[in-house]
TrEMBL record:
Species this protein is from: Sanguibacter antarcticus
rRNA-binding listed as a keyword: no
GO terms under cellular component: plasma membrane
Protein name as annotated: ABC-type lipoprotein export system ATPase subunit
Assigned protein family: Belongs to the ABC transporter superfamily.
Keywords: ATP-binding, Lipoprotein, Nucleotide-binding, Transport
Keyword Lipoprotein: yes
């Protein structure tokens, strides 16, 4: 399985198993994820969509093969170096939002600024603008336990977009959303791609997959 056009993020002959005795989740996967485009990953549950996202997002190491970022193999880098690349260049939307329940919605959105060492005041305006764009600004002072699952997913997307990352990865980013909210999210991801970002989403939504610039079907 491969895609041949050049991109800022590539995987080469990727293989992965969760343990030495476990079954192989991915094998021989080579993809160039294009800058300025949305790539949709589809396939049945258990085919490795989420695993591929976590590897591309430098949160898992491949069992075989390599991940290249800006032409450099980053697969074997130290965890601290991989974290720095991820922090400075990537935004991730997890399938279940994974917001910190002890912090407000606004603080969750501003979390990447904390890790990047950027003063909150420099990005509070952008955080509020993102919350407004996704229709959850009225929940800024609430805790994640006080908002719906769909609202939490939109907040997670705001968090991922805060630092305007060059790579955006989403694991079912519209899975908990109604049709109108799904459209807002898609338009935002499409806008990010149009501005040059590399956008990769795992989705079961066949209609969305057909709207992506590239479609990779895993099996």
């Amino acid at each position: 399985m491969s895609s041949s056009s050049q991109g800022v993020l590539q995987v080469r002959e990727l293989g992965f198993a969760y343990s030495s005795r476990g079954s192989t989740v991915l094998s021989g996967v080579s993809i160039d994820f294009e800058a300025g485009a949305i790539t949709a990953l589809t396939g049945p549950s258990g085919c490795g969509k989420s695993t591929l996202l976590y590897i591309a997002g430098l949160m898992l190491r491949p069992t075989e093969g390599a991940v290249l970022f800006q032409g450099t193999d980053v697969s074997a880098l130290r965890d601290s170096d991989r974290s720095q690349i991820r922090r400075n260049n990537m935004g991730f939307v997890f399938q279940d939002a994974l917001l910190d329940p002890s912090r407000t919605v606004l603080d969750n959105v501003l979390e990447p600024a904390v890790f990047a060492g950027v003063p909150r005041r420099h990005l509070s305006g952008r955080a509020h603008d993102l919350l407004e764009a996704f229709g959850v600004s009225h929940r800024a002072s609430h805790r994640p336990g006080q908002i719906s699952g769909g609202q939490a997913q939109r907040v997670a997307l705001c968090r991922a977009l805060l630092l305007e990352p060059t790579v955006i990865l989403g694991d079912e980013p519209t899975g908990n959303l109604d049709a109108d909210s799904t459209e807002v999210v898609w338009e935002t991801l499409d806008s990010a791609a149009n501005q040059g970002a590399t956008v990769i989403i795992a989705t079961h939504n066949a209609r969305l997959a057909t709207r992506a610039h590239a479609h990779i079907a895993l099996s």
